[in-house]
Amino acid sequence: MVAVDLEETMSMFVLAAALMTGCAGGGTAEITGNVDGLSITPSTMYWGGPFVIFIGRELECNEFAWVTKVYDEGDEPPTDFDFTALQLTYNESDVVTGTYDLSGQAPVKAEVINVTGGAMTVFKASEGTLIVDEVAGEGDASGEFNFTFDEDGALSGSFAVPWCTNLKSRT
After folding, report:
1. Strand 98-101 relative to strand 127-135, pairing
2. Distance (Å, rounded) from C-alpha 92 to C-alpha 114?
3. Which residue did the predictor score with more confidence, 119 or 16?
């Protein structure tokens, strides 16, 4: 008879399942500043499809089906839970390396999305720079940014975030 450590077996199973679904989590981000008094202290961060997202809430990769390219203030919130997030969204279908100026007709936009008590507020960056240094297939994406949200505030920071299979282009 073979002795099996149930706790070790379950830990290996959970890790294997997370890796197979692109939900390994992790990453690092330092974000300073605030927008309308809202600071972003990311507990969870991922990239995938046209998105890089930093959210102040513990979520697994498979809990990001609500992420979309378009948020309009006054619309129904995309979730039934409260959160504050910084979302970077490319006009095209994928996050790609490069330096991007967010003023004018930029190929990427930055938004702070705040959902509180069933109401959604969206702040769009009016100018700034996004530098994406690396996008490694189903690995990490890394870079830095500096965004201004008109008179509502500014955010700057750096990141190295893991890929999430559940972040896909949705309208």
Report:
1. antiparallel
2. 24
3. 119
Tell me if residue 170 falls in helix, strand or coil: coil
Q: Is 127 helix (H, G, I), strand (E, B) or coil?
A: strand
Q: How many residues does the chain have?
A: 171
Question: Residue 9: is it exposed, middle or buried by C-beta count within 10 angstroms (0-12/13-18/19+)?
Answer: exposed
Are 77 and 101 in contact, with CB atoms under 8 Å apart?
A: no
Contact 131, 11 (CB under 8 A): no
- Which pLDDT does position 147 carry in this prediction? 98
Supply the pTM of this predicted model.
0.83
Tokens 């949200």 map to which residue?
149
| Two structure tokens written together for 131 | 């530098």
Look at the block and give the residue holding tokens 């690995």.
139
One-letter identity of residue 118: G
